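To: structure desk
From: M.T.
Subject: fold request, one chain
Message: Could you run this one when you get a chance? Sequence is below, nothing fancy, just the single chain.
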Amino acid sequence: MLSLPHLPPFRSTIRGPWLTSAFGAVLLVALPVITVTGLLSYIAYGPQFGQARPAEVGWLRLPSFAWPTDPSWIYRLNQGLHVTLGIVVIPLVLAKLWSVMPKLVQWPPVRSPAQALERLTVLMLVGGVLFEIVTGVLNIQYDYIFGFDFYAAHYFGAWVFIAGFLSHAAIKVPVMWRTLRQTPLSDVLRERNGAAETRPDDETAPKGISRRGALALVAGGSGLLAALTIGQTVDGPLRSTALLLPRGRTYGDGPNDFQINRTAVAAGIDPASTGDSWRMELSGTRAVGLDRAALESMEQHTAVLPIACVEGWSTTQEWTGVRLRDLAALAGVSEGTATVSSLERNGAFARATLGENQVWHPDSLLALTVNGATLSLDHGYPARVIVPGLPGVHNTKWVARIDFVGEAAR
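Reply: Done. Structure tokens follow.
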């Protein structure tokens, strides 16, 4: 007769309802923040223009609205919070799973229809959160390593997690609240190592750290991950310690020494196409061609603006160039949207559509210089778009053409 393998007892004197509830309470706050900022990131990509990733999601499509340009750091805040908090909660998620491991592997796994429903919510919750963490961290560390569309997988994975989270929270939050009220946090923080939450039947179970020690261990792990992550969102000395957001610490010389997501080589830029023969085409009610000298002869505007990438890194620099609204006027358009096309040949973001509020913001630029120096090729030379609050991938580099669509100028 086939017999089941012997399952380990998972003995611990601190594993029990209180510790599980404590970890769950923190995640009950953190996970919704991570989820909401993640969904807002998809909205910021501009689904009203058909450029959200993924583009086709059926009835799961998010509501669209004009992503704000003020404050200019809004996307930087959104993605910094999403990625940093998503990494910081990893020890909490692992600790929570450890605390409930005996129940996850109990046999038989289902004893009643009600328990079957609960187990389904647990499967969606645990599977969803682990999938989101693993794919998210790998996407931060490496460029396009998946054999599938990361954006689509991460998006649909988020909805599986959301369904599991809401269902499980409805079942477990009342129990969690009662458990935490029965034992005040102040009592737990006075415990010494070896104190038990519940006495196991086997008195030989190892006596380890206290619940206070477990909380400190998890908090320390999360604090360490925060220190190794947050520097890519906050400019300053912590930039060099951001080992878990490794993309682009040095990509130029002097004023051009700041992060990029893709080099000119990775984007398939032919250096010859950015030389003296380069011309940028404008279209609206009339067509205009401009070389770099013509752009430099126009009125220049300087703005201090951030670039923020979906992977979490961001940086603030001083950009100088021609306002997009001045280029629109040159093309004979007084209001409306614009589509920016790049010389880029490799990648999914060679075109970006800008909303009306983005085109006509006074700090939206076709940048020619950064920090007083000419753009390097990796940073978009001969010209790149910089728009307040816009996701980094839509601040198009190596601009070849801008098509303005809207009311004719009078």
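Reply (cont.): Residues 1-7 have pLDDT under 50 and may be disordered. Let me know if you need anything else for the meeting.
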